[in-house]
Amino acid sequence: MSDQPAPEDPRRSVPRTDALLAEPAVQAAAERLGRELVKDVIARVQGRIRAAELPAADAVGAVLDALPPTAGSLRPVLNATGVLVHTNLGRAPLSPAAIEAITAAAGTTDVELDLATGRRGPRGEAAIGALLAAVPAAEAAIVVNNCAAALALVATALGQGRELVIARGELVEIGDGFRIPELLETTGARLREVGTTNRVALEDYRRALGPDTGAVLKVHPSNFVVRGFTRAVEVGELAGGLRGTGVPLVADVGSGLLRPHPALPEEPDLQSTLAAGADLVLSSGDKLLGGPQAGLVLGRTDLVQRLRRHPLYRALRVDKTTLAALEATLRGPVPPVQQLLAAQPDELRARARAVLERLTAAGIDADVVDAPARVGGGGAPEHPLAGVAVSLPAGFAEPLRRGQRPVVGYLEDDRTLLNLRSLAPADDAALADAVLEVAAAWT
Ligand SMILES: *Cc1c(COP(=O)(O)O)cnc(C)c1O
Prior knowledge:
Blueprint: H1 17-22, H2 24-33, H3 35-50, H4 59-66, E1 78-79, H5 96-106, E2 113-114, E3 119-120, H6 125-134, E4 140-144, H7 147-159, E5 163-167, E6 173-175, E7 178-179, H8 180-186, E8 190-194, H9 202-208, E9 213-219, H10 235-242, E10 249-254, H11 270-275, E11 280-284, E12 295-299, H12 301-309, H13 311-316, H14 320-331, H15 336-342, H16 345-361, E13 367-370, E14 388-393, H17 397-401, E15 407-408, E16 410-412, E17 415-419, H18 428-442
Helix pairs in contact: 2-3, 3-4, 5-14, 6-14, 7-8, 16-18
The structure holds pyridoxal-5'-phosphate (PLP).
């Protein structure tokens, strides 16, 4: 107890590890989280007692308080950045339906077994079926680990030792130093660049075709825009120009919209891109589609078969939990990313006012402001989305991020902004709780 004098030598009174491990609540935690993890926590608590920062009598409570909620260290974070698909925050939050499907598939599961016959079954057939149902213009599909893997597979299977024709304006760096042209070249494909940074014409593509052409590649510049004196060749025009040449047209659309989205008129989608004449279309599963990390390849049956039979496919295929989550995302209720995209400014303001009421009642200097949001690395660069933020003094940002339930907002004009456009309405209460907790710790 803090009102008792500290013992002469705190080291003497440090509780032993096995004594602490024998405490029923600690023992239960060791069974759930693993003995080594709990021992690490115990060692830290013993260190604090030794340093006379903690009375020995509080050891058990301190251990229980310091235990992580799960054996993994990744923690749920409230995304108040205003960036809907935030790469640093794990991109798309999964729908409850997808999370349930993952849980169901996580143990031993019939991912490659036909339970009716007892024979080996095709892997991922249900997820593929869901993809084909969602994108009727596709004849066939496969799923790999991410869109970069899809590009690597396509470049290897269609372009190794041959040429991939691509516009100079589409040689994109996707983030963290990764560049699509370098990725393509590591597969042993040669890039045949056409046009200039700002302009390319159908004739440029046509002149580049030859006996060595493996494919023509169109990459959606999903994280930048080029404005001014520009010209690109749309998929439809390019497909028309390639007709009869036998050269496949592959379009990487990035974001994974299944169909055109009214709020994102510039963003290409899988269905329209195939309908316009692409032979294969590639996208991520965890951007605007709102599902698990995955790379989707859809299109012509013969080309998809070539990819599936390529040895590299085996190194890139996805696991049972990804297949489960993808299927549930496609067949289940509207996933969170799509809900966030659909949010209206009036709703956002009403939500923000409800949060504000709780904060001002506690005497916190808070306000509600309009604050633009964006889709994020996932697509639609420079396309502003309406957003509404709770504004707080700047000093809130760091403690909120480091709190029990971390909240990531951003600083603007010396205020901490918590933008609700990127947060599920069901998390508003937890956001307010986190702010109240920070404020309570200050008083
Ligand atoms: C994001 C993106 C990629 C990379 O996708 P990952 O799923 O992150 O591998 C590739 N191409 C485009 C056009 C993208 O937008």
